[in-house]
Amino acid sequence: MIRRLGVLIGAGLALAACGATVTSASALHDWVSQSGYHSSSETLVADARHAARALRDAAMTVKQLHLVCGVLLYDTETANASLPTPDEQTTTLLSRAYTNLGIGAHQCYDAGASDARRAAALRSLEIAGAAIAEANARISTAS
User: N or C: which end of the chain has fewer CB within 10 A?
Assistant: First the structure.
């Protein structure tokens, strides 16, 4: 009797697991929806563009750079908290993007009036932008 009950429970669990199969594309789609990825990505791109404009503007004061770059860093850290994704390649791309956005934000914060430091920050932001674009393409393909 106990043996039959164990077999029935095992079979029931196996059947339940079969019905819960999730494809990697649907898992990524669910992650995008639950994490608010599209909104977060749009915010980060806007922040990075704002920081790039500020870095290119020689009249931008140190205090103004600190504000712009601090916002970028905060939003980057918030987006990074939603990792990992269910897709390893997407996670790698977004991690690269968020790492470079963070580096760029720190470089931006420290750039002051130095043209060389501003250029370094811009390079980090450009690398991040390319990784975000690639991640967005992968996410769009999976959806």
Answer: N
Of the candidates 137, 41, 135, 64, the residue with the CA atom closest to the CA atom of residue 96: 135
User: C-alpha angle 119/122/123, rounded to 5°?
Assistant: 90
Are the beta carbons of 138 and 24 closer than 8 angstroms?
Answer: no
Q: Give domain status of residue 54, yes or no.
A: yes
Pairwise CA distance, residues 107 & 94, whole Å? 19
Residue 116's identity, in one-letter code, is A
Q: In sequence order, which residues have a C-beta less than 8 Å from that of residue 90 and are 6 or more positions away?
A: 28, 135, 138, 139, 142
Low-confidence ranges of the chain (pLDDT < 50): 5-8, 11-17
CA 49 to chain centre: 16
